[in-house]
Amino acid sequence: MMAVKFRTTGMRNLMIEIIGYLFIILFVYAAVTKFINFEHFRLQLGQFPFLSAFADYVAWGVPMLEILVSLLYFLPKLRLAGLWASFALMVIFSTYIIFVLFADSIPCSCGGVIASLSWSQ
């Protein structure tokens, strides 16, 4: 019984580590892409009605927040906070996508892999 419990705990820790590393890759990639195409990202945010007044702040804040969340994974005591922050960022991103799908004009500051997808995909 103890071996099973230890094995389950080990598998759980491994899964948390893998998820953490995948989020690090995702968020660092997304932040670097936004910084490389910063002007395009900022202009696209400015075209969205409820973000236009805050486009400059959001354009700097989002990639900085993505890097900050990625850094949380490197400190074992903050890894759980990193998981929760990742969850929050993904909820915010999903909410943004839902708003965009119902908007009159669809801005796209997408980069990388998802740039070739349509909004409904």
- The structure class reads mainly alpha
| Rg from Cα | 17 Å
The geometry reads as elongated
Low-confidence regions = none
Largest β sheet strand count, sense and barrel closure: none
Q: Roughly what percent helix?
A: over 70%
Number of strands: 0
Number of helices: 4
SSE topology string: HHHH
The total domain count is 1
Mean pLDDT: 81
Beta fraction: under 5%
> How would you describe the oligomerization state of the chains in this entry?
single chain
What is the distance, rounded to the nearest whole angstrom, between the alpha carbons of the first and last residues? 45 Å
What characteristics describe this protein?
mainly alpha, about 120 residues, elongated
List strands and helices in order, with pairings.
Layout: H1 2-36, H2 38-46, H3 55-72, H4 79-101
Describe the structure.
- The protein is built from four helices and no strands.
- The protein is mainly α and 121 residues long.
- It has one domain.
- Helix 1 (2-36) packs across helix 2 and helix 3 runs antiparallel to helix 4 (79-101).
- The radius of gyration is 17 Å and the shape is elongated.
- The protein starts with a helix and ends in a 20-residue tail after the last helix.
Quick synopsis:
With about 120 residues, this protein is mostly helical. It has one domain. About 70% of the residues lie in helices and about 0% in strands.
